[in-house]
Amino acid sequence: MMNRFQRGDKVSLIHEKLNTNKNNFKTYSMKILLMVILLAGEIAQAQPVRLRWEQVASGVWKAKIGEAQSFDLLKAGGAIPRMASLKTLGERAFPPEQTACYAEMQTGKIYLRLPLQKNEQIFGLGLNFKTIQQRGEVLTLHMDHYGGTDNGRTHAPVPFYVSDKGYGVFVNSAQYITVYAGTGVRKDSPNPPLVFNRNTDSGWEAQPYSDAVEILVPGNGTEVYVFAGNNTMEVVQRFNLFCGGGVLPPKWGLGFTQRVPTLSTEDSVRKEVEEFAKNKFPLDFIGLEPGWQSKSYPCTFEWDKTRFPNPATFVREMLDKGIRLNLWLNPYLSPSSPLYEQMKPLSGSHTVWNGLVPDINLPAAVNLYRDLFKKEHIDIGISGYKIDEVDGYDNWLWPDIATFPSGISGEQMRQVFGLEMQKLTNSWFRENNRRTYGLARASNAGGVSLPYVIYDDYYDHRDFITAMCNSSFIGVLWTPEVRASATSEEWLRRIQTVCFSPMAMINAWADGTKPWSYPDVAQQVNEAAMLRMQLFPYVYTTFAEYYFEGKPPVRAMNLIEGFSVDSSVITASLNSTNNPYAVALREDCKDQFMLGDNLLVAPLFAGEKKRKVIFPRGKWYDFYSGKFAGNGEVIEIEPGLDRIPLYVRDGGIIPMIPSVLHAPRTGEVLPLEIRYYGEATGNFALYDDDGETFNYEKGDFNWYQLRVIKDKKGNSKCIAGLPKGQKSMGQYGSVTWKYMSGQ
Amino acid sequence: MMNRFQRGDKVSLIHEKLNTNKNNFKTYSMKILLMVILLAGEIAQAQPVRLRWEQVASGVWKAKIGEAQSFDLLKAGGAIPRMASLKTLGERAFPPEQTACYAEMQTGKIYLRLPLQKNEQIFGLGLNFKTIQQRGEVLTLHMDHYGGTDNGRTHAPVPFYVSDKGYGVFVNSAQYITVYAGTGVRKDSPNPPLVFNRNTDSGWEAQPYSDAVEILVPGNGTEVYVFAGNNTMEVVQRFNLFCGGGVLPPKWGLGFTQRVPTLSTEDSVRKEVEEFAKNKFPLDFIGLEPGWQSKSYPCTFEWDKTRFPNPATFVREMLDKGIRLNLWLNPYLSPSSPLYEQMKPLSGSHTVWNGLVPDINLPAAVNLYRDLFKKEHIDIGISGYKIDEVDGYDNWLWPDIATFPSGISGEQMRQVFGLEMQKLTNSWFRENNRRTYGLARASNAGGVSLPYVIYDDYYDHRDFITAMCNSSFIGVLWTPEVRASATSEEWLRRIQTVCFSPMAMINAWADGTKPWSYPDVAQQVNEAAMLRMQLFPYVYTTFAEYYFEGKPPVRAMNLIEGFSVDSSVITASLNSTNNPYAVALREDCKDQFMLGDNLLVAPLFAGEKKRKVIFPRGKWYDFYSGKFAGNGEVIEIEPGLDRIPLYVRDGGIIPMIPSVLHAPRTGEVLPLEIRYYGEATGNFALYDDDGETFNYEKGDFNWYQLRVIKDKKGNSKCIAGLPKGQKSMGQYGSVTWKYMSGQ
Description:
homodimer, alpha+beta, six-stranded antiparallel sheet
């Protein structure tokens, strides 16, 4: 038998075994020491080593491989594990099948091997747009715009996957890792695939069975985490909480937003706001696109005084009308900026559109941006940013051979630049104790707690919904933004879905489309938008669950308990004629999702009149009528154009407010209508706080317990529980219960 | 100014500067020594260092960067530079603009920077299918099937480019290098792009001007070569000769080949051969597909005795009829093979379709295959192989984390497995002093001299022709093989082009299509095939030029002198209405090509009746009629379905033989008709040898000088010059000159 390792590799491997260093210099001395030991004759056998797991939180374990890294995704995102919340989730045993994980070091890279069971499904591995199940795929997780193929190049190449066997794996590396998600077959596999002769055997498959996820980390060290859970949701919750917990947006962030044409002026924005009011269309914030800046692509971050002569006054005027402003930017500094010469030595070797790429790992670079952004935007009342062009594409951004003064590589910078811009801008709002909520074209693990929603230029409605499903596995938010559409039907269908997303946005920067631009569906568009506003108490609470419990607001069906459990049972006997349910589960379910615990959203797409809806185990009811719709089965519906199909689980409680033109504001009191559905008892914890500050982090919030119980005679009894000492439900005044009886 | 390097990186860089080691162990001790020096306080400033060029052949220079590599592309291909031929090309000065090349080492990788001039065009960088000019592209050169995008993933990811400024650059690395071919802009660039404000300036471009090619080599050492030349062709010649010189196929290799259905038997092959004879269609070799093996996917490499009960007898029988056999294989060893247990320790960690991946860098593994292949195939008269499935795709092949007992990485193995299989199989034929000629789905630099033609499953006719153009920049051969077509028009158009390619192949493995399967074009198909056979003396000579001079047989227009010179002049004033020539040159010219020095091929594609043809400087004549067609201009033609448009340059000489059903055989004597065209004098060196052995390498060949000169009265005089002491032109008997007067 040959020696399969080159001499240099042995060093790395031994090093990995002994590695306990915390800083570069110690690592460095240790390396020399090890080399001397090696020279003295102590040559170790380099073989794959079993990972040693160390518990780091309730249900969370870490293994270190190779050299400690000064930079990783959690550090880039500034993620602080929410230890108390993790504890609340409870202790779990280490997933027994995952004890046999191996790593080896080869030619300066790390090779990982993590077992897969038969019939195991895995989800996640970046923001994919076409597929939900990732087993059998090869993905190189590489920050980029989405190019039409699920190959790992995407706006959120998060190196995390969750298994339906109740665990998740996260590789905390800011490098382009390649994941062979159940493709490789080792010759020494204990579970080898069957062998066929392709010439004559029909059982031959192009991709034989593989019993492992294998991962290539192109670096000399990384951390791997395992998250346990009784189900996929619990695993995702642990991942999210470990990465800082979910975002709680300001209330206005969940209202409507319109992005106006790029060369808009104070006057045109004023007019836009008036038109929204006149058309009785909800509006909470307006997005200004590149032309608000004196120069952009690259950016000055300063106002264009011909279009916005008095920014502070104008922002104040808008705030007085209840309208916030969001500013587009890309973070590349124009040669016309007064900061240019100061930033030059603090920036990367390469420019982007002639703009400097500030090394935002250097405090000096950060401070230059901070002072400018605070003075020009944040301190005059700007509400947030749209951070553009931090994802790709290769021909535009800095090359991977770019160097940065902090020592971070071009590759690492690519993986986290958008994430770090999120972290920094958020921290500047936080200094003023004001929440922000904005858009970013790039995110990554470590950004779960950051108040940004991902978007892109790709504009396939179905794939946008699939992305929304997939966002729920990996701790990011995604908006299927609406732009001009080919038909009024498409416009309406897109509006209907964006209303059930983390940001209800129309992006009219290029075309100036208004919500009422398609007159034949203007009424239905308005109704869809109003429904989102009515659902505000429910939607805000789903985000509170994201923050407090790590449950994503939008959820793929594979995170829903009754759904995933059934799938593994029924897929054993596939038959597309006799057992459509099994087929539906075996195929990706990527065109429906849950918003919070109770609401199942089943959108339609232009050109379609019918669709299938898959209900998880239990009874489900039509949201609008309360009628029984199905019980753990697949139904076909033909819902008409006017409404997006919505279903509520048995015992589901949905708190609502009247149609309003803005999200609830501080001091505003609104009546609450609490709808409840089905036959089962139910309870719903309704969340509320001031909606604008970070005071909720210090306990300044309330949970109102809404319950439907049965009395001795079996009649429903509705209870709205107030916290001790409280006399009202805060922002919500009168309370009306409404049983959606289906009659 | 910050220190832009991490501590670990300094080691690499100093190491690079001092590197003179030849073996791993010395490298290793040196590393420790350097580390000790560093610790002692001698901290070097890590900055990009200028490459130091060392002349290694006439017009060829090398720079070493980082650690010496035990494995690279030239080694993998077994390339032996043809020093004498390089000398014949003459001495050239080092390209002056290329003296300012820089390298730096960062985090174990090499960053290269090579200057580009304004208006410079570059070609090559892998077998691309859609684009000719590569400036402005980002390509990660990664062995793979072609997936529909020119992104570096292709069957021949050759890291070589040629510039129209008269030089070429080759990175001799068997790793996935990324080339930023004029995209990156450094903040310290001496030639920065103009700055625009996108909001208001129409001159804004998404990709500003870049003054360099930048390359990321993901390893700790590599060699870079620069090739000089007075023009693109001379640069390519030097590259080809340095990589071993071009292939001289056996004569039969340039005849027709049919690949028969996968489960063919001795009887069905016999019948196929009879049918070809009956239909008077040329045929030199037949390709047997997977079913010739007892088991395949993975392979036993042994005959299926139910379909081929007596292989040796059958091969002999076919040879007696003048038909050779070529065997399909993929190099993955079936568990059913008697060699399996012996090969197991000599193979990679992962299997492909359950087959072992032999580490063919180990002599023991090679010998197992050699003995089997010689005994089962080569020694009984098999003529060659079709080496399949050595390119991609990621989900099927071994992952990059695969390890191999020789120490080669999975990545390196991926880049060269096809190349090494070519080298090995070729060497086994060479042991019998017999040339082979076959197909391989993967090649790379270092394989120029190997007798294999690349093919793939992608089936776009236009892109196939573009690939043929691009093959000429990078030292590979490509065939636009013909498979079943949607219409008889498409069938004919495809046949017409494959007849002007390195291998005239119909691939009927899946569908059994015959040349005459489309009766309404059967006659024209036959004529196209017969024309290739008639052109045999010309075609064989173009390959001899490949071997002796490094000139590729098929040539992109950008390699043709009068073409490239004009382009740089005329593109200055673009105007698509008034100056179509300039536009045509500014756009890629990718649908016409030269075959040898004299013949311009301008194919048509199904659905098209007209096309433009761009003539390089000088007069051009219609091949069929001899009529004047144009002079350094763009013409539009409407040539009809029957013939593929062909043009001959002024003074062009085309030696031809009669229509024959097989390539000229040893001892066969054929009359020669020498056509000549135009008004200028001309000369053509006609090559001949035994057509089967390697004796030409020992001088056993002849060049016959065919010349048309003018006498004092201006009349043409034709001379066929014989080498001293020879009385005839070898295989060619009677000689007839035919002036294609255009009358």
